[in-house]
C-alpha cells in the first residue's frame, strides 16, 4: 500500500513539467486506482490524476466527467486532507480548457455548494 501511495505521489510531482505522452502507460492504472482505493491511497491517486488531466487535449471532457463522479462522492468525506485534495483536483479539472461549463454548472456546482458552503449569519444586515 505504501509503495502505491508513494508511486502515485511521485507521478503527481512528475506530471507537471512533462507532457501527456510521457504518462500514457500509467493513465489506465491510475483510473483503476481511483475507482478501487479509499482513504490516503485514494488521496495520492486523485492528486496524480489532478496533475495529468490538464495535460490531456482530446479526451479531457470525458476524463473530467469520470473523475468528477469520484470527487463528488468524496465531497462528503470527513477527512480534511481528502477534502483539500478534492478541492484542488476540482480546481485543476474545471480550469482545464475543453471542460464543458454547462456540465460544471448543472452537475458539479449543486453538490459543491451543498457540501462546502455554510452560511454564517441569518438576517438582513449579514447579507
UniProtKB/TrEMBL annotation:
Gene Ontology biological process terms, A to Z: spliceosomal complex assembly
InterPro entries named among the record's database cross-references: ARM-type_fold (IPR016024), SF3b_su1-like (IPR038737)
Single GO MF annotation: mRNA binding
UniProt KW keywords: Membrane, Transmembrane, Transmembrane helix
Transmembrane stretches, start-end: 41-63
Protein name, UniProt field: Uncharacterized protein
Native source organism of the sequence: Coptis chinensis
Amino acid at each position: 500500500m505504501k509503495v502505491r501511495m508513494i508511486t502515485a505521489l511521485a507521478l503527481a510531482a512528475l506530471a507537471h513539467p512533462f507532457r501527456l505522452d510521457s504518462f500514457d502507460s500509467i493513465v489506465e492504472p491510475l483510473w483503476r486506482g481511483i475507482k478501487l482505493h479509499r482513504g490516503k491511497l485514494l488521496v495520492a491517486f486523485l492528486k496524480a490524476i489532478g496533475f495529468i488531466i490538464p495535460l490531456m487535449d482530446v479526451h479531457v471532457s470525458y476524463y473530467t466527467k469520470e473523475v468528477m463522479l469520484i470527487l463528488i462522492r468524496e465531497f462528503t468525506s470527513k477527512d480534511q486532507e481528502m477534502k483539500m485534495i478534492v478541492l484542488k483536483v476540482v480546481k485543476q479539472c474545471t480550469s482545464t480548457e475543453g471542460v464543458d461549463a454547462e456540465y460544471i454548472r448543472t452537475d458539479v456546482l449543486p453538490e459543491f455548494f451543498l457540501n462546502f458552503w455554510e452560511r454564517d449569519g441569518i438576517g438582513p444586515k449579514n447579507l
